Every structure is written in structure tokens, then in C-alpha cells.
Amino acid sequence: MQPIRIAALYRFASIGDREVVRDRLEAACRDNDVLGTLLVAHEGLNGTIAGPADGIAAVLADIRSLPGFEATEAKMSSADSPPFHRLKVRIKAEIVTMDQPDIDPVEGVGAYVAPQDWNALISDPATVVIDTRNDYEGEIGAFAGAVQPNTRTFREFADWFRGEGRALLDRPEPVTVAMYCTGGIRCEKATAFLKSEGVADVRHLHGGILRYLETVPEQDSLWQGDCFVFDERVSVGHGLSVGEHSLCRACRMPVSAEGRASPLFVEGVSCARCHADRTDAQRQGYAERQKQVALAEQRGEAHIAAALPPAKPAPG
Description:
Number of strands: 15
Distance between the termini: 30 Å
CATH superfamily of the largest domain: Rhodanese-like domain
Number of helices: 9
CATH topology of the largest domain: Oxidized Rhodanese, domain 1
Order of helices and strands: EHEEHEEEHEHEHEHEHEEEEEHH
Number of domains: 3
Structural class: alpha/beta
CATH class of the largest domain: Alpha Beta
Radius of gyration: 20 Å
Largest sheet: 5 strands, mixed
Strand content: 15-25%
């Protein structure tokens, strides 16, 4: 059996008729046995898809044939089992939601930093490193010394920066801000936002954490822990190997090996993070769902409840 190819991609480019693009990409995915999620907005495309190597190549070729999407990059990885069990091609107002309509992630974006140059930048004492991801992502992995805004969603990032975030830059000498996220997309908007707020020197990791983990040797890496991804792999490490985290099917949050040892963790039912927030009736429902998932696995089938979409925004 051939490994499944996974492509994570995004590009900011104008899309006039979102419905036409959605239908075209959905047909391309179905024709090539490709599953996953693609978001279509007037500002561009974002998503992660998986399938046979030739199928992924065909869908990427179709995307790159769209006007403005010729240079679309994709971060490639592989898996032994399907990371998705269904296809979703959806129209959205934004491909990553920040609720800051006046920023321009094409014209106003910060300077890109190649993965091989990232270590030197973030090791400089004059650099403030900011993780643009959310709290649960930063909890399982981050770059050494990075500031964690601890936002629950990307929508909160602007308020965080206008509050306590700006105080980080209050120094006698000008500072450089270095930002990072999973695949780069959130930094396209976050760096443009900081520049619109008057921050002069704003940079971000080109290709995000995923490109860094793929290209920087582990012995040279400043990354600590796992990187959360929005599919059934849950997390990845250096070389994009599958990480140690699983997903709590109740709250859709990552659970470490230590977390799975907690008496509050029950596969498919609860974890220490959500146990107190769920009623007995909810846990009973989750237990029944998990029973059906286990029975489906015994039959060699994929139960759709085992692959419900994350409760948080799509990756970036």
C-alpha cells in the first residue's frame, strides 16, 4: 500500500466568483480520490488535503491553473493511514478569520525569513518572538523563548496586541518582531496587522513551523515539543513524523501521553481539560459514540464520528 500524501496549502489572491472555484475544486478532489478541507474566500484559498500521490498532484495542478494561484506552495508530508475521512470545500468570508478588514495580507505583509535563517533571528536579544497560534497549540510545542498570547481564537490576537502585546515592544532601542504559526497563513495577517499598527520591523517564518520541522535538522532545532495539526495525525515533530498526541473526542483538544495517564481521560469520552465541563448525560453519549467507533474498526470500517472536525479554526 502506497503512503498517503498530505498537502497543506494557502495563498492570498483575489477570487471573484467563489462558487465557481468551489465547485471546480470539489470536482477535482472527488475525481482524484482526495479528501480533506479547502476554504474558498474572496481573499484566497486555504486548506489541507490528502490522497494518492498522483491525485494530490492533479488537484495542486488545478489550483495552480487558477489566475493568481500559479505560485501556490504546498507543504508535503505522508501518513500510513487516512488523516481525513471526508471532503469539505467551503465558501468563507476569510480563509483565516481575524476580523480586521482593513489590513492587506498581500501588500502589507512582513518580511519572510527562511527556516535556515530563523535560529539566528530569534536568538538575537533585540528580537521579540511571538507565537500567533492559540493557547492549546502553544501548550504542546513552541520555539524557545517565544511569547504566548494564550488566545482562544485568532480573532482575539488584535485585542491582545493592542493591550499587553504592545508593552513588549516598549524598549529604549527599536526591536525586531519575529512571528510564527503552523503553516504561515496566520502570520500573513498578523504581520500585516502589526505593520498597520506602526511596528516597523516585522518578520515571520516562511512556511511556518511545518517547513521548519521539515527542513531544519533536529540537532540544530530550537523547536521544543510537538506541532498541533488539524487532521487525524493531531501533532507532528521533526521531519514531520507523527507526534505523541492524540485527540480528545469530547473537546477536540490534543492530549499528551501524560494526559492519557490521567484517571479523567477515557478514550472518546473525556480528558482532564474537559471532564468537569461535561454532564453525565454528555459523557454517556460520547461513550456510546466511542462504542460505535470501536465496532466499526473491528469491521475494518472508518466511522465518521471518529473524524469530526476540530472545534477550533483551520490551521495556519
